[in-house]
Write a structure and sequence with these properties.
With 673 residues, the chain is of the alpha/beta class. Among the domains are: 96 residues, Nucleic acid-binding proteins (OB fold (Dihydrolipoamide Acetyltransferase, E2P)); 186 residues, P-loop containing nucleotide triphosphate hydrolases (Rossmann fold, 3-Layer(aba) Sandwich), CATH 3.40.50.300; 156 residues, 3-Layer(aba) Sandwich (Rossmann fold), CATH 3.40.50. It has a seven-stranded parallel β-sheet with strand order 12-13-11-14-15-10-16, sandwiched between helices. The two termini are 25 Å apart. Helix 7 crosses helix 8 and helix 8 packs across helix 23. It contains 24 helices and 22 strands. The longest helix is centred in the first third of the chain and has 29 residues. 42% of the residues are buried. The radius of gyration is 29 Å and the shape is globular. Helices cover 39% and strands 18% of the residues.
Length: 673
């Protein structure tokens, strides 16, 4: 049902809810609370933790009328307390809260305890009467948008549940019985309006299992779609000329991964393979080997990169690797326009371009391939199932390779990427010297810039990476302020460049090219330089506010230097001296193994930070967490395999609801047909 027609919503509220992705009642019911305020165990006022949000129970002794202060604001004061201490509550511009409070009545207040010695205070706390807190002690906290409160969403959810007498079960009854799960209606009700922690636990268990089963079934259906015959079945190719042409010896891992790709090429079904490897492990060379084999079989190849900078770099690299075999490489990005774009499109359509490199532009409707047989995406968290599917639709089931530079534990990778086989580059090419990594505080910044100056004097170059510094500040504001106030004054005689995500693509490329060409000594940048950028002369990278990043992200950034031989340095600056931060940064200083770093990162920082909101290109999950819920994920995969073994297309009546759930989860990504 359209959310507009739910009691209490209407057109204006529907517009506000749509900003949260809620357009239907089903989507509303799947907007699960991100947290709860627990009113079941309030603190005594005297022992409530200072400057931390908590619940206290207090009896109201008195309240004052509004007092106007500068700026036109009104202040309302409430005196309250319990047997342990008094409490002064202040509300700003909120007469309604004061009106609700009755003298000598007891309430539960939720907010931060402040005040000086002997005085406890709260400012603008949330409030529940004692009886209401006892009846519904866990109050849901939802993701919000302007004009929408958690209480309004909870009210809408109650209306939706009242209107739906029954919620259809998605899971077959045998799975509910096997795993002792509650019903779907019970789970939905308990997740929104729990009476106890056990309610939350049982609801989450049911909803997480259902969601992860839907995910695994969707991935298996996608994989099953690949059982159609490929239009690019190839013959074995003698790869000796390609390997012999290299000015260096490939690693065993590179040759093994290339062989796995070539073995897939000769199969009747299209390859769907994930190639994951650490920073600098040589994924592009493996892709080039596949392109060489595809060309020998008469097929075109395409590589899609997440940024124009990286696409241009790939084109340059692949031209060196493949141009000597008369393999014609073409670059197609958003910056290619006019006559140049028409010429590239014609070359692609006529088959005069053998390898096409580009951004998402290679997926646009105007791009027609003559004989596409091999498609590569340099995923880097940015390309999901939908983009992979759209790329595959450009030809008759071409072979597909997804490259990722974030090492993931293999068992988790198999669960996450259920529609892909996995190849791993687990060794670095010879000659890569480990990057010396140090963690310092901001007090050492002056000394650090002296060290950078010394490196620049020796003809090298440096990166300085700045994250978002203050809440509400954009990346452009943060990095621009650093550029003007810190980098330029501390390096007055050096050519310092600035790059951030708000620059136009052409301007980013111009700055990056100036840095690559040595026209800039230092590049101050946001993390847009993270993805695969290769400047061999850069041997030093400084990362400000290093505690803001996961270790895997820091490892990715560190990999921007040390690509040209010789000593390279990474300096992590953080003024956060908590034990957890010190432990994490120390680990990175002493480890260069991306897989070990990823494992440590997952264990200590949490999968939400590691995977990010898009879960590595998978559909958005409403409640499940791929790492924290890995045991349920494994169980869900085993059940999904058993279900699809008996019913590959989920076409039986028993599995019809499961198919609908899988299609619903993947609806924004791709069709499962």
């Amino acid at each position: 049902m359209d959310i507009r027609y739910l009691k209490g919503v209407g057109e204006k509220r529907a517009e506000q809810l749509s900003r949260l992705g809620i357009n239907t009642v089903d989507e509303l019911l799947q907007l699960y609370p991100r947290d709860y305020v627990d009113y079941s165990q309030p603190y005594p006022i005297a022992s409530a933790p200072y400057d931390v949000k908590c619940v206290v129970k207090a009896t109201v002794y008195g309240k004052s009328g509004g007092t106007r202060v500068s700026g036109g604001r009104q202040i309302f004061k409430v005196t309250a307390g319990d047997e342990t201490a008094g409490l002064v509550i202040t509300y700003f511009n909120n007469p309604y809260s004061i009106q609700k409070l009755e003298i000598d009545a007891t309430y539960c207040f939720y907010g931060k305890i402040g005040g000086g010695f002997g005085t406890r205070e709260m400012i603008n706390p949330a409030m529940l009467p004692e009886a209401a807190a006892g009846a519904s002690p866990f109050v849901p906290v939802y993701p919000l948008t302007q004009g929408v409160s958690s209480s309004f969403i909870a009210k809408c959810v109650r209306s939706a549940l009242a209107a739906a007498d029954e919620l259809d079960e998605t899971l077959p009854s045998y799975l509910i019985e096997k795993y002792r799960l509650c019903s779907r209606r019970e789970a939905i009700y308990k997740i929104h309006f729990p009476q106890s922690e056990q309610d939350i636990k049982s609801a989450r268990r049911q909803l997480i299992f259902e969601e992860l089963l839907s995910l695994q079934l969707g991935l298996l259906l996608l994989r099953g779609r690949g059982h159609a015959l490929t239009g690019a079945r190839m013959k074995s190719v003698d790869m000796r000329p390609f390997w012999a042409s290299l000015p260096f010896k490939p690693t065993n891992a590179q040759k093994r991964s290339a062989d796995e790709i070539l073995d897939d090429f000769v199969n009747q079904t299209p390859m769907n393979r994930l190639l994951q490897g650490d920073v600098g492990s040589g994924k592009t060379l493996v892709a080039a080997a596949g392109m060489y084999a595809a060309h020998k079989n008469g097929y075109q190849s395409v590589l899609m990169a997440p940024t124009e900078i990286l696409a241009s770099q790939h084109a340059e690299t692949l031209q060196k690797l493949l141009g000597q075999f008369d393999i014609r490489v073409a670059l197609l990005t958003g910056s290619v326009k006019g006559a140049a774009k028409k010429a590239v499109l014609k070359a692609v359509a006529d088959g005069d371009a053998d390898v096409i490199i580009g951004t998402h532009a290679v997926l646009s409707d105007g791009v027609e391939y003559k004989n596409l047989g091999f498609a590569v995406t340099d995923e880097q968290h940015r390309f999901g199932v939908r983009q992979r599917s759209k790329l595959a639709e450009k030809a008759d089931h071409p072979h597909l390779l997804v490259m990722s530079a974030t090492p993931i534990p293999r068992t988790l990778g198999l669960l996450m990427f259920g529609d892909l086989d996995i190849s791993v580059l687990d060794e670095l090419p010879p000659g890569r010297t480990p990057i010396k990594t140090y963690a310092v505080t901001g007090k050492k910044r002056g000394d650090l810039f002296g060290f950078i100056e010394k490196q620049l004097a020796e003809g090298r170059q440096a990166y300085i990476v700045c994250p978002l510094i203050d809440e509400g500040e954009t990346d452009m504001q943060a990095v621009t302020a650093y550029f003007e106030d810190i980098a330029k004054p501390l390096l007055p005689n050096r050519r310092v460049g600035l790059m951030h995500g708000r620059l136009k693509a052409a301007d980013k490329a111009a700055v990056m090219n100036d840095f690559k060409d040595g026209k800039l000594d230092v590049l101050v940048s946001t993390t847009v330089i993270e993805v695969g950028v290769d400047v061999p002369n850069a041997n030093c990278i400084v990362i400000e506010n290093a505690e803001r990043y996961g270790l895997s992200a820091l490892h990715q950034l560190r990999g921007r230097v040390g690509r040209g031989g010789g000593e390279a340095f990474c300096v992590l600056i953080s003024d956060h001296l908590s034990e957890s931060v010190r432990k994490r940064l120390s680990f990175l200083c002493h480890s260069t193994d991306g897989f070990e770093i990823a494992k440590f990162d997952l264990e200590t920082r949490g999968p939400g930070d590691f995977f990010g909101s898009r879960q590595h290109g998978l559909p958005t999950l409403h409640i499940a967490d791929l790492m924290a819920d890995s045991k349920i994920l494994y169980t869900a995969q085993q059940e999904a395999l058993a279900i699809t073994a008996a019913d590959p297309t989920l076409s039986t009546p028993q599995n019809a609801k499961l198919r609908l759930a899988a299609e619903g989860l993947f609806s924004e990504e791709t069709s499962l047909n």
